[in-house]
Specification:
Layout lengths: L8 H11 L18 H13 L3 H29 L3 H18 L7 E3 L1 H14 L1 H21 L10 H23 L4 H20 L5 H15 L29 H33 L5 H17 L5 E3 L1 H9 L5 H15 L3 H4 L4 H15 L7 H6 L2 H17 L2 H21 L3 E6 L5 E10 L19 E11 L2 H16 L3 E5 L3 H10 L4
Parallel strand pairs: 4-5, 5-6
Antiparallel strand pairs: 1-2, 3-4
Helix pairs in contact: 3-4, 3-5, 3-12, 3-13, 4-11, 4-13, 5-6, 5-10, 6-10, 6-11, 7-15, 7-17, 7-18, 8-9, 8-15, 10-11, 10-12, 17-18
């Protein structure tokens, strides 16, 4: 008998406070309501614990500034991929970052207009125009919100660890290769700036951690570029920055069934891609910061952010792992860094756009190259790891990377990896079902012992494991060590009993679990 115990309300409160990052973005546990001063004293302590101290505020703001600088060229390039004006992607990133800072369930994670969603949305813009993209963004937000409330994040448990490693490695490769056009095949000046940027990034942390190394690298290289009038590609060359704030409004599309027919497939595809990339990125941040997140809240919070984003005319967005790692490495741990990233992004691309245009792309390329190197799971390809890792798991990891890198679509790689993992697991599980037998001393009865999980894949050879022609008049099939999981297993047991009864042999099934007995009773055709 299984003993089930329920936690009390006090137990749940304590557990939720210790595991939920929303309970305390600064990592300081909220105090209890007892102590001197009563409830007012407790509320004051609680507010102090939730609000970061002065030093942490400075760190969070600087991390947000560095992340905003990294967002600008990426967002512009993603806008070009989607076939829209750069201002649409930039305003989308600003809106999503600001809203998700309040609604999301993973503090310190950066969500903005993402390349994976831009790839999916590009055909829609090309065939029907920007207004249908905006309508689709609102639909994506609504669907994400509903799925978040329904607990879709629970499906993440079915993504194997090797698929996640392949996801991370593929993303690191994509981040690195995306910087190559800004650093390779250029003038010697660009090479020198990239090398100088990498040198600053690698040495700055040894000198001081008061100012994030990426911010120092970008500032110094921009100063050098402007002072010496160096002719190198800059942020201004990537696309025109906006000159005014976004205005809310409704998409200019007909409200009819034809519009629904056009946008519905893209709503489904973008929702799947966005939630998948977001929830996988959240798990990566969990490992980096030794904290946990609320996946359901992150799902519906991203939905709210995309709804607001759509009403401001933006393209769909989700978590961006490269910029998230920039934020975390710069010290961002709470919601303030996410909010600051959105706020600084708006400040940089509107009032300060003339200054931002002079930032050399080689400086940002150096930052993102180092991010890619730090993102890659180098231990996963170490010879010692590959020797110990089962070949099936290595194959899943390699296939995930092989699908993502050429398609630039993380969702494709994850789906293929999960399907391949399921097939390999099924193949492996099919070999786990075994049948052994023993004949009683008098020769009147044979007992067969079945071990393992019986389902559609493992029952293929079950029927052939019995010696129907030479068995004695009575046969017992002991299923105490087996699990009957589906109708295929019941059908296989029916075949065994039918073959014995055709020969006049009495056969009985014993040791069935309650669930297995109920399944056999409900589906068996043999009385």
């Amino acid at each position: 008998m299984t003993e089930i115990s329920a936690r009390t309300g006090a137990d749940r409160t304590e557990a939720d406070t210790s595991t939920n990052p929303d309970a305390d973005p600064t990592g300081v546990a909220a105090p209890s309501t007892g102590g001197p001063g009563g409830r007012g004293w407790a509320v004051g302590r609680w507010l102090g614990a939730r609000w970061p101290g002065r030093r942490q505020v400075r760190v969070e703001l600087l991390a947000g500034l560095v992340t905003a600088l990294a967002l600008i060229p990426e967002t512009i390039s993603f806008s070009v991929v989607a076939g829209v004006d750069p201002r649409i992607g930039l305003f989308a990133s600003f809106t999503i970052s600001m809203v998700i800072a309040f609604t999301g369930g993973r503090p310190a994670m950066i969500s903005a207009a993402a390349g994976s969603m831009a790839l999916v949305a590009a055909p829609l813009v090309r065939e029907h125009g920007v207004q249908y993209l905006i309508a689709t963004t609102i639909g994506v937000g609504l669907l994400m919100f509903v799925l978040g409330l329904l607990g879709v994040a629970r499906l993440m448990r079915f993504i194997p660890r090797t698929v996640m490693i392949g996801f991370v490695n593929a993303l690191a490769i994509l981040i690195f290769t995306a910087q190559l056009p800004h650093a390779v095949g250029r003038s010697w000046t660009v090479y020198a700036l990239v090398a100088a940027g990498l040198a600053i990034l690698l040495t700055m942390g040894r000198l001081t951690r008061a100012i994030p190394a990426p911010l120092v690298a970008v500032a110094l290289l921009t100063f050098v570029t402007v002072c010496f009038h160096l002719s190198v590609p800059t942020v201004g060359d990537e696309g025109r920055l906006p000159s005014s704030l976004p205005r809310p409004g409704l998409p200019n599309v007909p409200v009819d069934w034809e519009t629904l027919r056009i946008v519905a497939p893209y709503v489904l595809a973008l929702t799947a891609v966005g939630l998948l990339e977001t929830l996988l990125t959240a798990q990566i941040v969990d490992r980096m910061t030794a904290t946990t997140h609320n996946p359901d809240r992150e799902s519906w919070g991203l939905g709210v952010a995309n709804i607001v984003n759509g009403f401001f005319g933006g393209m769909g967005g989700c978590a961006m792992i490269g910029q998230t790692i920039v934020n975390v490495n710069a010290g961002g741990r709470g919601r303030l860094s996410t909010f600051a990233a959105g706020g600084f992004l708006l400040l940089l691309v509107v009032p300060l756009r003339d200054l931002v245009c002079h930032i050399p792309m080689s400086a940002l390329a150096a930052v993102m190259m180092l991010v890619a190197v730090m993102t890659f799971e180098w231990r996963s390809i170490a010879p010692s790891t590959l020797r110990r890792l089962p070949r099936e798991e290595t194959l899943v990891m390699v296939v995930t990377v092989a699908v993502v890198v050429p398609t630039h679509n993380l969702a494709y790689g994850v789906v293929v990896g999960v399907v391949l993992s399921a097939l390999l697991f099924t193949r492996r599980a099919a070999r786990l079902a075994t049948v052994t037998s023993v004949l009683d001393p008098h020769g009147g009865e044979r007992i067969y012992v079945v071990r393992g999980s019986l389902f559609f894949a493992s029952t293929a050879d079950l029927v052939e494991a019995f010696d129907y022609a030479r068995d004695p008049p009575r046969v017992v099939v002991d299923l105490a060590a087996a699990d009957v999981l589906d109708s295929a297993a019941v059908a296989a047991l029916d075949d065994v009993r039918t073959k014995y009864r055709e020969r006049g042999v009495e056969v009985s099934l014993v040791g069935l679990s309650p669930a297995g007995a109920a399944l056999v009773k409900g589906l068996s055709k043999v009385n």
